[in-house]
Each structure stands twice: as structure tokens, then as C-alpha cells.
Amino acid sequence: MKINQFGIIETTFEQKITELTAIGFYDAPIKLAAQQGPITLFAALMKQAATITAVTTEFSDYMVNENQNLADFLTTCTTLTMQEFDSVALQLLQFTENVDYTLAEPMKGVQALGLPLANIPGVWSTNDLLSAWYDLLTTHTKNGLQFIDFLASHGYFKTTNESLFFNGKAMVTFDTKSLKKEVVYVETDLDTDDDGIKDLVRVDIIRPTTNQLVPVLFTASPYYQGTNDAISDQKMHKVNVPLERKRPNHVTYDEIAYQAAPTNVLTSHEKNGETSVATKTFYPTAHVDLNNYFLSRGFAVVYSSGVGTRDSDGMQDTGSPEQVASMQAVVEWLAGNRRAFTDKTSGITIKAVWSNGKVAMTGKSYLGTLATAVATTGVAGLETVISEAAISDWYQYYRDNGLTIAPGGFPGEDMDVLAELVYSRMQDAGDWHRTKAQWHQKQVQTAQEMDRVGGNYNAYWDARNYLKNVPNVKADVIMVQGLNDWNVKPRQVFRLYQKLQELNIVKKLYLHQGQHIYINNNRSLDFSDQMNLWLSYKLYDVNNQAQTQLPDITWQNNQQPDTWQTKASWGQTTPTAISLANVQTPVSYTDQQTKQAYATYSKDYQTWRSLMMNREKHDLDHARIMFLQPKQAQDLLIDGEVSLQLRMKSSANVGLVSAMLVDYGIERRLTNKPVPQGEQIDRGKNWQPTSLVEFELAQATPFKMITIGHINMQNRENSWRVNDLRPQEYVDLTLTLQPTLYQLTAGHQLGVVIYGTDFEMTVRGNQNITYTIDTKHSQLLVPIVTLADAKD
Amino acid sequence: MKINQFGIIETTFEQKITELTAIGFYDAPIKLAAQQGPITLFAALMKQAATITAVTTEFSDYMVNENQNLADFLTTCTTLTMQEFDSVALQLLQFTENVDYTLAEPMKGVQALGLPLANIPGVWSTNDLLSAWYDLLTTHTKNGLQFIDFLASHGYFKTTNESLFFNGKAMVTFDTKSLKKEVVYVETDLDTDDDGIKDLVRVDIIRPTTNQLVPVLFTASPYYQGTNDAISDQKMHKVNVPLERKRPNHVTYDEIAYQAAPTNVLTSHEKNGETSVATKTFYPTAHVDLNNYFLSRGFAVVYSSGVGTRDSDGMQDTGSPEQVASMQAVVEWLAGNRRAFTDKTSGITIKAVWSNGKVAMTGKSYLGTLATAVATTGVAGLETVISEAAISDWYQYYRDNGLTIAPGGFPGEDMDVLAELVYSRMQDAGDWHRTKAQWHQKQVQTAQEMDRVGGNYNAYWDARNYLKNVPNVKADVIMVQGLNDWNVKPRQVFRLYQKLQELNIVKKLYLHQGQHIYINNNRSLDFSDQMNLWLSYKLYDVNNQAQTQLPDITWQNNQQPDTWQTKASWGQTTPTAISLANVQTPVSYTDQQTKQAYATYSKDYQTWRSLMMNREKHDLDHARIMFLQPKQAQDLLIDGEVSLQLRMKSSANVGLVSAMLVDYGIERRLTNKPVPQGEQIDRGKNWQPTSLVEFELAQATPFKMITIGHINMQNRENSWRVNDLRPQEYVDLTLTLQPTLYQLTAGHQLGVVIYGTDFEMTVRGNQNITYTIDTKHSQLLVPIVTLADAKD
């Protein structure tokens, strides 16, 4: 087990005393004890801690070394050293003797666990002990909480409903039993349902009852008002369809660039009065876990599903500028720059008088996507976004290089399917029957514009590419992405991160080894603490240097469990060219499968993918070419985008190329889903406990896909221009795979598998097409850093 | 989707009106509306419901048929029929149009879903509507709640902190924000740590603040105070060891029957005073979900880990009479028949003055086991137990027929390993260092007595066989068991259920298709409602006929999703003998594997088991014999215990026989773990939401194990008597497999696979033993009911 804490700020002794005083750990009795020396002080501190936290308050239940318990120690000893303190600290932090540490060498345990306990040699003074006690309070327990937060979950803090910060982070001092739950309707400047009247969007607010102004964590979630799962499933597109030839064109980007339509003059809702008291409430269940963490710490949490969802006006249009603008409008209301009503008909306006005007947007996937998108509007009041596994360009989500590409795990999904899923106005039968004709028409239009068969980038997609608008970003941006997320793939954050480098804002990136998951409840990383430090800084103006304290890039090592490393850059490495010509040239493979294999793998793409990487002979052999590098002499790091430069031909007038970069070598690798650790952690005094999880080493496997990419041979120039493709005529193309940051173990082999149909992600035409690669004129480009250089 | 509700009691119209009045759905304004006819009444009822539950309160958001919304209907129509009511009811219950029902034929949807809505033809009177409204309130929503509970979770009931019953079930009227959390220490009559002083056991209480006396749900959970996972894992026994020959004996049961040791005179704790106010509190997280459900309904919840756990006295001894007695002592205190202290040293006693003296014990697995065990003491105050996946005889859990047998999924686990896991006194380092010498000695004794190598039933196991004590049972018993639970296997409940038949108590049995799981949050069955009905009857004396209302046996059909059927008996069918002689006789198989296969399958017993059932040729073929019946002409039900009568020989002087009964036939079968439905359900006003789950049909598979069994050829008489076994000498033995209740589809084939080593459950000696079966003198006995007969 290892704990990685990056959210602790260095604090002077004077400041430590000030903060210990503020939180009640340096009160009159403890001051008095301190005057009597470190042993008496230790007894006083332990009494407070033990009473609050422990099953037993008996000092005889703590050991200070192998032979002596704390009760004996305090009565017989006159000096205190780190060894004795650490022994007791490890017990307070719930670590297990002979598993996590030994009483013979507690400091060894502290070091191995990576605990940031004080390192003070010799005999301790009372000041040493006070300083070490402060450090102990910021150190994580075995179960994923700072010790001070563990104390808080056991009732340490009174619910004053006033902010209190410790080591730069907001503490649990707000009452979660009296949270206000309010609904308002924000008036947008949109008219997505074409009735001439401004669309209202419903906003749900949860906030502490307090006299101070509070900032807001706002999550824009089209899922929040409910989803139409069964109906949306029926809309899934068939993927067992052929790849169709496209007529060549000479389209330029300027021709397909999105231009916003001129806005009509819209009717505002009539105002009949004003109030500061909401008239409508709601009954929430937990939605975004990270938000829950902040509710007991003096932050409000706000959800909206935007236009085209239950109890809001308007039509649903995945990722559209209008959808984004409806979320932007919510930020504007929270910042005092837009009006809202208490309901849809009364005309009574209501202000967010409780808000301090500072907003952070949070969320994963679609939720993080809209956070990113709103940031690219530059809206005032949005101080920061924490966007996890977020889409920055919808074309890259459902399309790629002129191909229709499914998010991993969701073959057949597309923009219209997702819209169907979240058009939750369907869930009120009356509202549905009133709007369904318009809705069906809207979906016909979406299907046409998204052009599933063609697959080219066009004005529709350009409107949904937020990367273009990155120069507008004013908010600081925290990004989180799984390097094994093949749903929202790593390129989404890579491109955003690159674009943001040009701006004078703070940007921080977390790259983990998971798939499409949150990381706020991982044992080995103090992500929630870090976000607390960050939001205390951004939204409460706490002077905690969060902008420099948080690493620029935090990368979870894919070889070692519990290992999070900091980095200064991602994807800045110049690629090394690796020839493919050691294979007899040219080489061919044929895409078509037998009827039976086609039926089988259409149903079970997991087995298909595993076989495609498997080096042994099998019935998919004819459908791929594998290039295998020699065994690596040393560990190396692949840093950024791998690409293939290929000279190749298709036997038909259509063609697609897929490629996987693969790590070959038998090894236990990390699970891509964190495993529940059997603990519910309480991060806010019985408020919404969450499951503690951790990535673990799985059974040994012979290979692992590092990254993947696909391209339509007719889009070898770019994704809007269609090139001609003639049967058996060689063309040159570059296939850039999804970016990665991957440590390849010494002794392993790097391999690349090139093939056509991807049973999980492309259409599956089962066409009889033979592809041939001229390996002499083809190469693999890999941004390799040897591991010694990689340490930065 | 189908909903199966067995927890609704038939209610007269007068009683319905009384209850509607009591819960506020027949108040003055509604009475007034009723005087103006059904349309006005409908409007008034809907107004109340819609205001509470709906996103929108607009009547125009409900449809009464394909063309008319509720607002229009109420203003233009003068009569109400079932069709219109059901349309609106389905919307209130959150079902989805065109998925779960259509507006053209709402009653068809109601029927297909199995909803218990009123069936009243013709034009409705106000009384019809009131009666139907009552029925609606008891009907489940799409998301696993009675509609009245859904209303409650949206704040329908005031928190009066007084009991209110509706349709025989306790409603959510207690405040979950002001629950009291108290710790007391119950004084037992035990001295498991041999210090001459009565052991104290810690008890944690959560109870509503109320002026009325409340009953108790008590869960005896050795896990509750924490588990020593890593330490316990180190204690796992090696299973790659040979099966050893046992010296024949002539032991009789009387010789090994357990006799309680005479009790020493023990010192009681000194009493220094009395109080009614607990002095110690605790910070709970959710533990047993079913208990959480009851906290908002006027029930207290109590946990204890018993002797030999953190903050209690004593040694840990899995399943021992002393462990059971320590839990019995808790019941006695709750019923007013034993004393407890506020802490371990002060001598201040405290009574459960808030308790009405009626206790139910709850829990799954070890927790349910102790509930069963305490019931067999006949302790006063224990009114009922709800024991799920409970062990009734520990010998059957870690041993079987003279063999050491692992619970499925846990090879190498045993009584001492489990004791190590829950000896949570280890978690207080001081307490651990004080007691560890005694603990190690205790574990040496346990290891010796449990006799892992021998595997025979002896006095140690007899002490831990609660079936012997069933005649003492006074409490009514609810049993829940998964028919695919190979951890706590079905025989545990089967034997208990059979024994209980002799007693004049209420016994109810639920047999589901899951493995080792709880079923209280399944969508398709109203299990929590049923337990509410049951505990309202047992603990609050509500006259609701729960004892006859609940089915005697509720069986989840293994073929059809969402299908729960009632039965009058289990395992009463006379077996049909099926000859094995169609195979050329005699037939042999050899247990030994190649080194490589042995290593592989030792690590991956899942693949091993799948291959052992697979009919295709493979490298495990030599290690089994498969007998396959012809295709079934019609559906049939296997009801109870299947057994094999075998005449067979071993090539060695040791031998073991394993057998699996297998269903062959390609079919989509139910998952054995319920799948989360993406909904958090709130069953007590924001108190501990739980995930809604359901068994779903998985991908088609070619076979499925129905049941399994193992026997040591030296224990062919019984599990304590050791018979001689000579190489190559035929012996007769009967191998009884775990009981089942399994519907075999027409067209499928029944198969039995006979083999030696079970890589998941037995020791794996990899000995070179050849087994031979004289098939002419062997047969399979299957209790078959043709499906027409099976319907009862």
C-alpha cells in the first residue's frame, strides 16, 4: 500500500499554531499541558484524539513500541522521539501492524506507505510535537481521509455553518441535515423550440443554511432529469453495414466552418414581481460524488440538464452551441448576470442572493464535456472547471478521420441516439405528446446533419468542436483522463491540453490508468484534498498557493500499483522512426470473415479484440498484419502520439485502416476499474458516504493494448476532404493513434497490429477487401523516452 | 418487466377509508370534492399526489388517453373509467409509455407488469375511485417502491415520531436526522478468556427519538467491528496437498456427541450505580441494508460482534456455543432479562428502557447463521429471525461427507481462518499485545479440533451443528437462500427447513436464483414490503395476517426473468431412478493432471469447472465420466435432493468422489448476481438510499451446473465413521448432491459429471488414482415433477 498526497501545503510553525488554535487543537488545557513538557502534551493531544476517534479511549490500547503501551509509557518515560510518535500515529491512522508496519521499525512503515508525517530526529520538544501533530492531522488514514477529516466525520467540528480552513482546505463545519433544496427556472436567450419565447431551463440547488455567501459547484448534466434508456436503445444504429465509397471532393475548411445563425428577436417572460425565497423544492439523491464532498464544507451544489430536458423548455441537440449556451446561462444567473423565475408561469423573479458569484463546473463524460464547453465561452463568474473524461470535440467522439467510429463499448451509438436518451421531456406524458412531432422532426434533421454514412467533418461537427473556441477560455482548467478510457478517448484531453498551453491560465492534468471512471475516491491519491485546496483557492480566495502546489501533470504509473508521479509535459517527445521493412514486402491481409466467425464476433467483440492481439495462430490471422519489435533492453516511456506512416492499397475503391499498439510480455497489470476496498468513507459527517476503491494488479496477461486508431483511406488528407481511392493503387497515409503515456517494461516487446474492420468501433461490412502494405515505404513513429530521461 | 407483490393485504372498503383518513389522503377538502363526484375527487387526489411527486404539477403533463391530457379531461368529461385511471396511474408510477405500456391499452400494460391496481369495470363511483386510489398507494413504482413509500420519500409524511401503519405496514414517520447512537456493554455468563470474570460484549444501538417503545432489529455480526483481511489471508491453508488415508474406526455418534463443559463460578462486574442515559456514542455507516429500511419506520437497529471482537472481552471461536450465547445475551438485555453497563469500568448499569422487548434477528451469511443459532436457544424476546444464506451446520460449510470442502470461491478457508478474520481485538495494538499469546494458543486448539486433515464429524463440529437444537426454536423463522449460492450451499437451509416442519411455528422460505446475495432491493419482488408486513405483525402486534398472507415458499423461476412463484413444499418429491447402464460397463477415469494443467487449473478453477462440464474433447477428458440423458420432451422440475448410488472402486487405498448435475442446452439464463438498474431508491426520506437491482438474462450459454456434491470413499457410512478402502475393491456408496429447485427446459438434456478432485472445493492431491464405476450397479436418483404437476 502507498499513499500519494500532493494536496498538503508547507506551513510555518507560527502558522501551524494559529491553525491548530483555530480548529481547537491548541486550546487552554493543551497550552497548559504544553508548559509541562512533551509527555504531558502528548497525553493531552492523545486524549482528545482518542476520545473522538477510537473504539476505546484507553491509552493501554495503543503501543508505543513492541513492549510498552501508551499508558505505561506516559507514566514512566520523560522523553518522546519520532519512533514512539510514529508508532502511535500509525495506529491512529488505522494502519495494520505486521501488514503495513512493524512496531520495531515504525518509521520504515511510514516511509514505505509514503506518509507525510514529520521527520524530526532526536528527542522532541513540545514545539516538535505540536508541529508533528499538525502534520499528522493532514496525513491520510488507511481509509482515504486526512486524519482531520476522519476526526470531522466522527463529530470533531461543531456545525457553525461558517467556513474554517485548515492547511488551505475547507473543513466540515456546515450542517448537512438542514441543506436547502430549491428549484429555479433560468431564462436563456435561446429559442430552441421555435415558439418565439425565450427558453426556460430548470436549475436544482442544494446549499447549506448559512449567513455567509457561498460559491457554487455547478454540474451541467443532461442525464440529471432522467434518461430514456429503452427508447434510446431502440434508436441504436445498425453497424453490420458496408463501408460506402464517397464521392471525392475538394472541400476546404472555410467552406464547412460553422457560422452561427442570426438570432431572432425573442419574447422575454413577463415579470410580475420578485422574491428571494424559492417556492419549489426537490428530492435529490447523490449525483456527483465529488460535489457531495463539498456540501459540508461551505459550497453550494447546482445541477441543470439544460434545454430539451424534463421541466425545461426547448429541444435536445447533443453538444450544440445552444445546449452549451443554456448551461452558460445558469452560470450567469449564479454570478448575478441573468434572471430566473420561481416557476414557469408566475413571472416572479428570484436572484441567487446566497451566492458569492464564483462558480466551478464539475463532472465526468457528458458532464465534463459541457463544463469544458462553457469554459470556452469565457463566461464571467466561471472561475474554474474540473472536467473529467470530457469530450473537447464531438467529431472525435462519434467519428474519426472520415469514419463513423463508436465510443468503446457502444457500437451503433451516435449524436441522435444520445439526444434521444436525454430528451427527458418524454417522461411527462403530456409534455411528450405536445412536443413529439417537433422532436421527431428535430431528430430527422440531426440524423441528416451528423451524416453517419459519410463520416466527414462538416459544419454540424464544427459547431460542436470546442477546441476552436479555446482562445476564449478565462477559467482555470483541471483535467482528468483515463489512459485506458476507450469511451471518451485520450485524444479529447490531449488536444485540449495542447491548446490551453497557449493561454495564460492555470491548467492541471491528471492521467490515470482507469477507463471511464471518477478518481475522487481512490485510496492511493488525495484527489479530493487537492480539489479542496484548489476550490478553496479559486472560490474562497484562500491564499494557499494551490496554483503552484498542485503538480502540472500527475500520472499514474501503469507498472507499479499505488504510484502517482508528477510530470512537466506530455507529448513533447520527438518520435523515433521504426522501420516495418524487416517483414518481407509487400504484405497483405483480407478483411472478410466466414459467415460464422462474422456472426460470432459481431456479438462478442471482446473476444475478437483479444484474438486480434493474440500472437498464436487462429481463425482471425488472415485479417491482420502484426509487426513485432525485439525485446526491450530497458524500461521506456511512450510519451504522446504514436503514428503509422503507411504506403498501402485496397483491392476495392473503399478502404479503412485500423491499428493497435500492443505491449507483449507476460505480466500482472493494473485493473482498469478500481476495486472496492470494502470501506465506506464518510467525508462529511454522515453525509453521503462513498466506497473507497483502488486499482489493483490483476492476474498476469500476455499482452495489453496500449492505444488504437482508425482512418478512412478516402480521408487521408483530412477529415472533410474526400480523396479518390482506386483499387490496387498505392496511396500514402498517416494514421495517428490516440495519445498515451505508457511505461513499457524491459523484456517486453512493442507490437503493432494493422487490420480493417474493428468489431467494436467501426462499421462491419464484412466486405471482401484485401489490403496490401508496402512495408519498405512504411514506418512506425513512436515518441520514446528512456526511463532515466523520463523522470522529471 | 414484471413486478411481483405478495405483501399487500386485502382490505375492506371501510377499512380503506379509515386508513386513507389516517394517512391524510381523505381529509376535509377531499371529502368535499368526493361529494361533487368522481371527476372532482380525481382532481383533488391528483393535486395532492402531483404536488408531492412530480417534476411538474401541471395536469396538462399527464395523458388520460392518446389524445387528451388530464387538464382537458377534467374540464370536459363527467365520468371516469378504469382506462383513464390506469393511464394516469402508470404515469404516477413512473412507467414508460411505449416501453412498459401504451395509452391505447393501459390495462394490458397493468396486466403484463403484474400491477395490483383495482380492476373495476364500467363507470366509476367516488367509492370506486377511493378504493382504487388506496390500491394505487400500495402498488409498486417502476423503481421498487410502493407508491405510498415513494410519496414518503418525497416528504409526504410529517415526522411525528409515532407509528403509523398503512395496509398493515409501518410507514416512514420517524426522523432519521435525530437518530440516537449509543454503545452499551452487555454482561454475559461466559468466560471465554479464562480470567474468571464474566465477558462483556459491546452493543451498538441506533434508534429513533420517540416517546413510544420500539422493537429491535438485531444483527449479530462478527464482521461489524472490523476485519483483519491481510492477516487472515496469510492463514489460508494449502489445498495443493494429497488426500490422506484415514485409519478405519467404529466410532458411533454417541461417542462424538458434544457435551457442554460444566461452567465455573464466575465473578460478576461490580455495580456502582444505574442510569438510563448511555455515555458512549459511535459513528455508523450503513451496515445491513434491510435494517436501514426500518429505521425511519419506528424500529431500533442493534449490532453486536460478540465475544472476541474489538472492544469486547473474550476469545473468538467460530460458531461456538459461547459465541452464540454472547449474542443470546444481547437479546436478553434487549428483552429486559440481563444487565449491561455504560462502559467497561465504571460499574454503571443501563437498561434498554426504550425497547418494547420484542426482537427480530436479521442478516446474511455469518450474520444469518448467528440469527439461526440464537433462535435454536429458544431465548425469550426473540420473536422472529430473518436469516439469509445462513449456515445451520458448520460441518456442512467447511466439511462434507468426511472431506475438507471449501465454500465456493474460498479454497483454503477454514474455521481458524475465519476466526482470525474477525478477531478484531487485533486492531487495538495494546489490546492485541495483551491477548496475543492466549489468542495464538486458542488458534492452535481450534486447528487441532477442527481436524482439517481428517475431515470427520466430531464433537467440535457437533457443538457447531445448530440443527440438533431446532426443537428449542420458539421464534418464527424467515429463510432466504440462493439456489446458485455455492458459498453457503442450499443444503444449509434445506435441512433447517425440514427440521422446522416438525415445530408449531411460522416458517417461510424464499429461494432465489442468486449466489451469495441479499434480495431486499430487487425490482421484481416486494421483499422489503413483505418483511415490513411481517415485522409489523411480529414486533408491533399489527393484526395484518402476515402469517397467512406471506407465501410459505416463494421460488424465483430460473427460466423466466422477473418471475416469482409460490409453492407449498420443497423436496417432498419421490425420486425417479435413472440407470447409468447405457454406458459400456465398467467405466474409468483418472484423477491426475499433467504438471502444466495442474498448475494452470490450480490458479484458475473457473476455467477448470467450465471445461469439466464442456462436452467437447479437451485435456481434462480423462479425469471425468459424463452420463447424458436424452433430450427432455417437456419442461420438468427437479425438486429437492438428487443423489447418486454408485458401485465403484479406487486404484488406491484412498478416494474421493465429486459430481455435478448439469443442464445442457443453449439458452439465455439468468445472471446469478442481480444487475444494478441505475437507480438509487430512497426508502426512508433520504435515509440510506440503496441501489435498485434485478436478475437479467445473460448471453446464451451451452450448459449450467444445477448442483454439486462430494464424498470421501472412506466415509460411505456417515461422516464420523471411517470405513476401510482397499485398492481395486468395489464399494457401494450414496452421494447426495446439494438440494435444488430447478426447471429444466424441454429440449434440454440432463447430465451428470463424475470426477475426483474439485479444483475449487476439495484438496488437490494430483494423485495418480484411477476410479472405476460399475455402471450396471449404479444409478442416478432425481426427484422429478412434470411441470403441470409442479404448479401449486
From TrEMBL, chains A, B:
Originating organism: Weissella sagaensis
SMART domains associated with the record: PepX_C, PepX_N
Enzyme Commission code(s) on record: 3.4.14.11
InterPro entries: AB_hydrolase_fold, Galactose-bd-like_sf, Pept_S15_Xpro, PepX_N_dom, PepX_N_dom_sf, Xaa-Pro-like_dom, Xaa-Pro_dipept_C
Name used for this protein in its record: Xaa-Pro dipeptidyl-peptidase
Keyword entries, A-Z: Aminopeptidase, Hydrolase, Protease, Serine protease
GO molecular function terms noted in the UniProt entry: dipeptidyl-peptidase activity
EC class of the enzyme, as a word: hydrolase
